[in-house]
Amino acid sequence: MHELVPSQKFDLQIDALLKAGVKEKNIYKDVSSGAKTNRKNLDSLLSKLREEDVVIVWKMDRIARSVSHMLKLVDEFEQLEVGFRSLQEPFIDTTSAHGKFVLTIFSAVAEMERNIIVERTLAGQESARRRGAVIGRRKGLSKKAEAQAILAENDYRDKKNQLSITEIMKLVDINSKATLYKYLAHRGRRNCKVCKAMFWDNDQDVDNANCKRHIK
Prior knowledge:
It is a single chain. The protein is mainly alpha-helical and 216 residues long. The chain is built from seven helices and six strands. The radius of gyration is 20 Å and the shape is elongated. The relative contact order is 0.09.
């Protein structure tokens, strides 16, 4: 059994994990700063998992930044035939039939939420076009890629969960950073050619953009 604890105060969590039968050598800790950076010990944990292992967390948010992120991790665990259980949220438990049922409901709700985000965004763009507005540059993206671009933007700009680039790529099912940044540029992500500051503006060209401080 393995556990990841991304927190600066571990004692309460470690005591609970030891009581649950986790060996101290199998407890993984990450100190999360809130920045969009990779979590090295989470990657280390994932690399060491083997069939029939069970990942135990004190709370779901100790390993995942959002419900969608948790479901993506659970999917990876299932492919490895690894279980997942939360001590503080006993309804999150892939080792039990009831827990699997609850996660199936979570997955359906998360999928519906992401579909609603895509549908609302596309509907808003279509409405704007009918009124004569020019929204971004649609050339070169398929319908699937357009949906991925919308979800990538939504996750990238999510200040609450502050997902890392790697986490966003997993959630949106994008295989390379270059593709992710291409999609974000399509959605309006720009870097000022003078100061390199990042900002959002669909009206400016990607290679010739200026932030408010340097716009002519």
